[in-house]
């Protein structure tokens, strides 16, 4: 399921991926689109200024956190492999023992990731406002 979550750019999408399966267990993956607020690129002005982009991205991170929590998302899938150590997790799957925990499954990772995004944006906005 796709959700429009502007902030990185106005047309950025995030998604829930379901069902993901690990044997008989079903999981829900969450991918938050974009990796930072982006004002302009390739000659396109996406937002009037950086503050507007940051406010938009922060609000969308909060919104998508609620969406993911309501869907019981338990697999955080990053938009860039360095964000969540994707390659380490892929490697860990290779060494996983039968019945052992799956490296990608975490009941708290999705919420933590979204919280980091919006709290960092809120901190940046407060700093820029001199608070």
Structure description:
With 131 residues, the chain is an alpha+beta fold. It has 3 helices and 6 strands. The strands form 2 sheets. The protein has a 4-stranded mixed β-sheet with strand order 1-2-3-6. Strands 4-5 form a two-stranded antiparallel sheet. Strand 2 (13-22) and strand 3 form a beta hairpin. The protein is elongated. The protein starts with a strand and ends with a helix.
SSE layout:
Blueprint: E1 2-4, E2 13-22, E3 25-31, E4 40-41, E5 44-45, H1 50-70, E6 75-76, H2 86-94, H3 109-128
Parallel strand pairs: 3-6
Antiparallel strand pairs: 1-2, 2-3, 4-5
The tally of helices reads 3
Distance between the termini: 38 Å
The H/E string reads: EEEEEHEHH
Strands of the widest sheet, in order across it, are 1-2-3-6
Structural class by SSE content: alpha+beta
Range of helix content: 25-40%
Poorly predicted runs: none
Strand content: 15-25%
Number of strands: 6
Shape: elongated
Gyration radius, to the nearest Å?
Answer: 16 Å
Q: What is the average per-residue confidence, as pLDDT, rounded to a whole number?
A: 92
Largest β sheet strand count, sense and barrel closure: 4 strands, mixed
């Amino acid at each position: 399921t796709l959700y429009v979550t502007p902030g990185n750019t106005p047309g950025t999408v995030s998604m829930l991926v379901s069902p993901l399966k690990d044997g008989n267990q079903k999981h829900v993956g969450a991918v938050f689109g974009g990796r930072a607020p982006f004002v302009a690129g390739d000659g396109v002005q996406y937002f009037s200024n950086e503050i507007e982009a940051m406010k938009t991205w922060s609000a969308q991170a909060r919104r998508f956190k609620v969406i993911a929590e309501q869907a019981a998302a338990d697999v955080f899938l990053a938009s860039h492999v360095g964000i969540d150590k994707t390659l380490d997790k892929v490697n860990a799957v290779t060494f996983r023992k039968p019945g052992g925990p799956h490296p990608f499954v975490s009941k708290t990772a999705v919420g933590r990731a979204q919280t980091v995004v919006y709290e960092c944006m809120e901190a940046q906005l407060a700093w820029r406002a001199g608070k």
